[in-house]
Design goal:
- By secondary structure, this protein is α/β, with parallel strands linked by helices.
- It folds into 4 domains: 32-152, Nitrogenase molybdenum iron protein domain (Rossmann fold, 3-Layer(aba) Sandwich), CATH 3.40.50; 174-305, Nitrogenase molybdenum iron protein domain (Rossmann fold, 3-Layer(aba) Sandwich), CATH 3.40.50.1980; 312-443 and 450-549, L-amino peptidase D-ALA esterase/amidase (4-Layer Sandwich); 566-674, no CATH class.
- Helix content is 39%, strand content 18%.
- Strands 12, 13, 14, 15, 16, 17, 18, 19 and 21 form a 9-stranded mixed β-sheet that branches. A 4-stranded parallel β-sheet has the order 4-3-5-6, covered by helices on one side. Strands 7-10-11 form a 3-stranded parallel β-sheet.
- The radius of gyration is 26 Å and the shape is globular.
């Protein structure tokens, strides 16, 4: 077996172990009968063992309740769940590949109403079907409980429901004090070339109400309705939010004359969240409502008078750092501003000199650390300022600012990576948190727009006494290793993902601790200390990104296209389809092609060639152009001399545009009755 294949399989096993949740005490007694969204009674004599899920919220629930071991296939949007990276993809939510699903031989297919008719034609009677639809927030709890019964994870399911209800009640208590006259009009924006929004009966408007906002009333129901300018201005939203490609409607429509008179536009109250939260009511329902509420009312959440929970330490777990001068290392959880905050704390037996990229050079430090604030604390924290947040964190932990140096992050401390590198009797420890999906940048190319604490945070310790020279040189060694990890993962710049790989997040920070032991004066790449720093940081950054964002080098091509903001459906709509076919048919055909390793590899090669061409490392790409025509001809079953034109909303590197045009051209001709 090839080494890389063996390594990938080993990684899949590791991911699976990371994602596994121990089942609670079983309460399920088979047979079990449940009622799905179609009103069907679905009977189970035993726990299903081969499940394909086309519903992202259901997939998320299965992972949360510890039932992911039954999954055999997922939709292409579920790849970032820890442990899901290695599962087969069966196409998109709107156009699943029934061929791929049949090949997996599921004994249960979880789907939505839009899949019903096609599933009835494509799936045999031996496979049961369970349809789930989320129309209201309460459906989220019902789905968790239903799947808990079906998969013998009832106690885990009830724990998920209880956690969500507790958070929703907290937000209700925090926002109920806001007078009606001070409540904000809030709107979820959607769309690309026209403004759209959830209908009046959508659970997304219930989310706004749960967050203390006032949602719009359009007089129309349904998952999505079109909003004209008059209706937009009548509602006059004070806060708007969206996700993913919704930025396009803000840039191309809402910034235009007339539209830009709304208070949300004039006041700059535009917020973007992960689509996994905005478009889903599942296991993170309470988390999203809390985050949304904090963005709507940051001053209310920052005001001490509105706190509900007492500020206190509620948990602690120890870490093993085998250095003589480290007396205690732990991650402490405490309630701050009503939400669980988590702090990495490392105490020393003697004062240390440190170099911090956040605070500069300091002496007399007896504690270093890294503090995580959850999303509902971010906007209030910006309102308060870093100095006030720092003082409040130190107060909660019983630390003094004179002898303590912390970094601050939005990456969960549960995803902390602790790495050790050793050569002979020299040891280096790197403790790293990382998140790269919202503010990754490429230095020298992207505009600096933020001034905030770190996202990739690194704390370095060793069993050597580093000189001031070695400490500052260690900053460079660690930074180079961090960038190498991002490069090898193909992390893209958040601002310019089409053309730029990221070199960092723009808010990264490092603490180097002076340490104790034999003196060391060199921490550069040609010295042993620099080598060990590089090894530990590289491994730690990759592991932290895996835990926080679920990104691995082998992630599927759909994920890598999304990271470059490429959506196949708008691209398909820009082409001409024959015989009355819709653009969605063409997009579905291209999705089906990309499920095949050959064509996925073709696009992955195009991504690599594109980066090389952008960096001016390739002078003549005519060979690649010939390959594109050959691929188009292979798909079409006839010779293709010229590729179809495809309109890209945002310019892409020429090789990638050509590769996608080849797929669309071949698929269009095949649909139109080409040579095959």
């Amino acid at each position: 077996m090839k080494p890389w294949i063996l390594g990938f399989r080993m990684l899949c096993l590791i991911l699976w172990g990371m994602a596994w949740v121990a089942p609670g005490a079983s309460a399920t007694r088979y047979p079990v009968q449940v009622t799905d969204a179609q009103g069907r009674e679905v009977h189970f004599d035993q726990r299903p063992l081969r499940v394909v899920s086309l519903v992202p919220s259901a997939t998320e629930i299965l992972f949360a309740i510890g039932a992911q071991d039954v999954l055999q296939g997922l939709a292409i949007h579920d790849g970032a769940l820890p442990g899901a990276q290695c599962l087969p993809r069966v196409g998109g939510y709107f156009s699943p590949s029934w061929k791929k699903i049949r090949q997996l031989q599921p004994d249960l297919l979880i789907l939505a109403g839009i899949h019903e008719k096609a599933a009835a034609r494509a799936i045999g009677p031996e496979c049961r079907v369970l349809t789930l639809e989320t129309r209201h927030l309460e459906d989220a709890h019902d789905h968790v409980r239903l799947l808990g019964r079906v998969f013998d994870r009832e106690s885990n399911a009830e724990a998920v429901i209880a956690r969500n209800r507790e958070t929703l009640e907290l937000i209700r208590a925090k926002t109920m004090k806001i007078p009606l006259a001070e409540r904000k009009r809030v709107m979820r924006i959607m769309g690309r070339e026209r403004l759209m929004a959830p209908g009046d009966d959508s659970f997304q408007n219930e989310m706004i109400r749960a967050a203390g906002g006032i949602p719009p009333h359009w007089g129309e129901t349904g998952p999505v309705v079109t909003v004209n300018r008059d209706a937009w201005l009548r509602f006059d939203p004070e806060v708007i939010y969206g996700c993913g490609g919704d930025r396009q409607v803000v840039e191309e429509i809402l910034g235009g004359a007339g539209w830009n008179e709304a208070k949300a536009i004039t006041g700059g109250r535009i917020v973007y969240f992960p689509c996994d939260l905005t478009c889903r009511a599942a296991t993170h329902l309470g988390d999203f409502v809390a985050w949304l509420a904090s963005e709507i009312y940051p001053q209310v959440f920052a005001d001490a008078a509105n706190r509900i929970r007492p500020e206190q330490i509620i948990g602690s777990r120890s870490l093993e750092i085998d250095l003589a001068y480290v007396t205690n290392a732990r991650v402490v959880t405490g309630i701050l501003d009503d939400f669980p905050n988590k702090s990495l704390i490392i105490d020393f037996d003697r004062p240390q000199a440190i170099v911090s990229s956040l605070e500069g050079r300091r002496t007399g430090v007896v504690t270093v650390g890294n503090h995580y604030s959850p999303p509902p604390c971010w906007a209030p924290g910006h309102h308060l300022g870093l100095d006030q947040v720092r003082n409040r964190v130190y107060g909660l932990l019983g630390k003094s600012a004179e002898s303590t140096s912390f970094l601050f992050t939005g990456a969960d401390m549960d995803h902390l990576s602790v790495q050790q590198a050793q050569s002979g009797d020299t040891r280096v420890f790197a403790l790293i948190t990382a998140g790269v999906q919202s503010n990754a940048v490429r230095m020298s190319q992207d505009t600096g727009s933020y001034d905030e604490p770190g996202t990739i945070n690194i704390i370095l310790l060793s069993n050597r006494a580093l000189s001031p020279r070695a400490m500052t040189r260690a900053l460079i060694s660690a930074t180079e290793a961090k960038t190498a990890a991002l490069t090898d993962l193909d992390i893209r710049s958040s601002a310019t993902p089409a053309v730029n790989a990221a070199t960092g997040t723009g808010t990264d920070n490092i603490i180097v601790v002076g340490g104790a032991g034999a003196p060391a004066d060199n921490a550069g790449g040609h010295g042993k200390m620099g080598e060990l720093i590089g090894r530990a940081v590289y491994a730690g950054v990759r592991k932290a990104i895996l835990r926080q964002n679920g990104l691995i080098p082998e992630r599927d091509v759909f994920q890598r296209l999304r990271e470059r903001r490429i959506d196949l459906y708008p691209l398909a709509a820009s082409t001409t389809c024959d015989r009355g076919r819709k653009g969605s048919d063409l997009a579905a055909a291209v999705e089906e092609l990309l499920l095949e390793p050959r064509y996925a590899g073709f696009v992955q090669a195009a991504l690599a060639v594109s980066d090389a061409r952008t960096r001016e490392l390739i002078e003549d790409s005519s060979v690649f152009e010939s390959w594109c025509r050959s691929i188009a001809s292979e798909i079409a079953g006839e010779t293709v001399a010229q590729l179809d034109q495809v309109s890209f909303p945002q310019p892409q590197p020429q090789p990638l545009e050509q590769a996608l045009r080849a797929l669309f051209t071949g698929a269009r001709r095949r649909l139109s009755g080409g040579g095959n």
